[in-house]
Amino acid sequence: MQQQIRASGPAGGIASHAQYRCRRPVVSTRAAVAGGKVYIDPVKKECTAFAPATVANLGPGFDWLGCAVEGEGDTVTARVLPDQPGKVVIDKIEGDNGRLSLNAADNCIGIAAIETLKLIGQPSCGVALTLHKGLPLGSGMGSSAASAAAAAWAVNGLFGSPVSKDELVLAGLASEAAVSGYHADNVGPSLLGGFVLVRSCDPLELVRLPFGGSDPLYFVLVNPLFEAPTKQMRAVLPRDVPFKSMIHNSTQGGALVAAILQGNARLLGSALDSDCIVEPVRAPLIPGMIAVKAAAKEAGAYGCTISGAGPTAVAVVSDAGVGARVADAMAAAFRSEGKLEINSKVVVRLDPEGAKFV
Ligand code: HSE
């Protein structure tokens, strides 16, 4: 199917792809000026996208820094729903043990799809969605963001990808705000890949941070069988922060950014380890977390903290073999000190691409 903008009404016509990409200015085409409706057609009947897990915060980067990691993620298929412009339905969700709502307005893929259709403009059809959850819910690995990112990328793909990944973060942000909290540090990197600094949510301003240098970089992620819903973990955050803590976390946040740009895994791990504002109030709510952090460093990690809102713990290493030993030590500490079983333990690299078609 050819990508096109279909215009109906007295002054209908076909707009170019360039106009399509500048979606908002399209309103100034002849058809819109004449009061006609401009519809945007899909270019395929079905589109499937995968979006990766993310590690947000990275310690002192609370709500403003995150990165995408290889391995598991969520997959969404978007299918054309003919003759129902703008309508979003969820056909099926797999891998959630029946826990997620099939009502589009209450589900992160539904919300992200609705918002993506709005960003696209006036679609001539609706979309039906299927979600396969590869990430556990409430795990601290950006589960809701991966769903939203995959949905946004799949729906956008149906229409020939007229909206940029940066702009689609807005759709993911709307979804995150509804289900987890107003933060883009998961959905940004899940869509864009790599490290993403969220300079501002309103207006949205994202800064991609390339990992420089040639240091190998691995993340050790250990996910215990325990749920820490982001909404609840945000409810415990302090309202006020001592001036000294603000200075400490700002300094360490600066070190995090420097470490990424310089490609310095050791500095990255040590800065990630040093949050004195959020981690101290959340760690006691995750059984064994304090011992897990100590065990990771004892086994050779450069640093360890809570991934996202938890309960997953993340450590940084620059060698896969060391990573395997660190993972074992962290898992053992979750078992012995937290009395928690382990759902998964992996040693993974950065995912440079983010959401992708499959
Ligand atoms: N910045 C968010 C938080 C990430 O820590 O609450 C949640 O994954």
UniProtKB/TrEMBL annotation:
Recorded GO MF terms: ATP binding; homoserine kinase activity
Catalytic reactions on record: L-homoserine + ATP = O-phospho-L-homoserine + ADP + H(+)
Domain GHMP kinase N-terminal intervals: 114-194
Positions of transmembrane segments: none
SUPFAM superfamilies xref list: GHMP Kinase, C-terminal domain (SSF55060), Ribosomal protein S5 domain 2-like (SSF54211)
Domain of life of the organism encoding this protein: Eukaryota
Domain called GHMP kinase C-terminal: residue spans: 257-335
GO BP term (any one): threonine biosynthetic process
Pfam families: GHMP_kinases_C, GHMP_kinases_N
Recorded family membership: Belongs to the GHMP kinase family. Homoserine kinase subfamily.
The name this protein goes by in its record: Homoserine kinase
Organism per entry: Monoraphidium neglectum
